[in-house]
Amino acid sequence: MAGVLLYGAPAPGLAEIPKGAVQVSPLILGSQDLAELDDASANQAVILAPGGTLERDYVLAQALRVLKPGAPILAFALKDKGGSRLKKALEAFGCEVGEDARKHHRFCRAARPKAPKGLADAIAAGGPQLRPDLGLWSQPGVFSWDRIDPGSARLLEILPKLAGKGADLGCGVGVLAAAILASPNVTSLACVDLDRRAVACAQHNLDDPRARVLWADARVRDESLTSLDFVVMNPPFHDGGSEDKALGVAFIAAAAAMLHKGGTAWIVANRHLPYEHGLGGAFAEVTVKADAGGYKIFEARK
Ligand SMILES: C[S@@+](CC[C@H](N)C(=O)[O-])C[C@H]1O[C@@H](n2cnc3c(N)ncnc32)[C@H](O)[C@@H]1O
């Protein structure tokens, strides 16, 4: 069993990470799922807390559930990304919290109380759940967890019925994939996401033998994804909270590498993102199919 739990990847020098700590962030490939660890089984937890309230409370509650009574927990976050609310969040679970500030972060230290309060409620509120409005399983913390992203909605408005073998890169909980699989001419669809929570929900949501859901980094070449007829994506453009245009450009290059000549990529982009150059270099023909409401939809033929 895990001796020390580590959630997230703090910048070097920010917090002391004991050797052999077990990574439990769903955003790090290969990590363990906190939800699967036994009650009162871990000796220590070091948590770079996520900013969203439901997501943060879920992580803190799961960590307190998994820690042995009296075991230390260190939770920290940038002051303006939820750090200033961490102390209250831990106190609500019955912890006595010591707080200090360093490098724009708030650090909260506590020992796991003998009888923490409210863990089950926080775990239920922040755990996987069927969203009646989406008709899909989702979880706080995954991309656009409780509503369809407006860019994805625009793509769905104009996406033709696709056919053959395809991929959905950065599939999230499977909003685009579910619509794509409505076409009987789609023979297979690989759905790739880096977020383990999204992958678990997509597996529930895409109960279709043609769908294969992969917990993977879409930028890393997968030899099983070649000669595809189509790729669909609404690529991420944030990494660790800050904008990263290189992510979308890497997704475009990955899509081009997966397609056969003549294969098509459908791409959603926020209007301000400069994807035209990357698309022009990787594809023979690029058409803007829609440009409204802050989003562009590209069809790119290899
Ligand atoms: C803009 S969201 C789109 C989600 C979904 N397709 C939709 O339309 O709602 C981008 C997705 O890419 C995922 N992601 C981020 N970096 C990734 C990477 N390197 N490889 C695979 N997926 C990634 C995120 O977890 C997120 O689910």
Explain the overall architecture:
- The protein is α/β, with parallel strands linked by helices and 302 residues long.
- The chain has 2 domains: 122 residues, Vaccinia Virus protein VP39 (Rossmann fold); 174 residues, Vaccinia Virus protein VP39 (Rossmann fold), CATH 3.40.50.150.
- Helices cover 25% and strands 30% of the residues.
- It contains 8 helices and 17 strands.
- The longest helix is centred in the N-terminal third of the chain and has 14 residues.
- Bound molecules: S-adenosylmethionine.
- The site of S-adenosylmethionine has 19 residues, from α5 and β10.
Uncertain residue segments: none
CATH fold-level name of the largest domain: Rossmann fold
- Give the name of the CATH superfamily of the largest domain: Vaccinia Virus protein VP39
| Overall spatial form | elongated
Number of helices: 8
The ligands bound in this entry are: S-adenosylmethionine
Beta-strand percentage range: 25-35%
Tell me, what is the CATH class of the largest domain? Alpha Beta
Class from secondary-structure proportions? alpha/beta
Biggest beta-sheet profile: 7 strands, mixed
Number of domains: 2
Give me the strand/helix succession: EEEHEHEEHEEHEHEHEEEEHEHEE
Report Rg: 21 Å
The mean pLDDT is 95
Strand order of the largest sheet: 11-10-9-12-15-17-16
Which architecture of the largest domain per CATH? 3-Layer(aba) Sandwich
Please bin the fraction of helical residues. Answer: 10-25%
N- and C-termini, Cα separation: 49 Å
Count of individual beta strands: 17
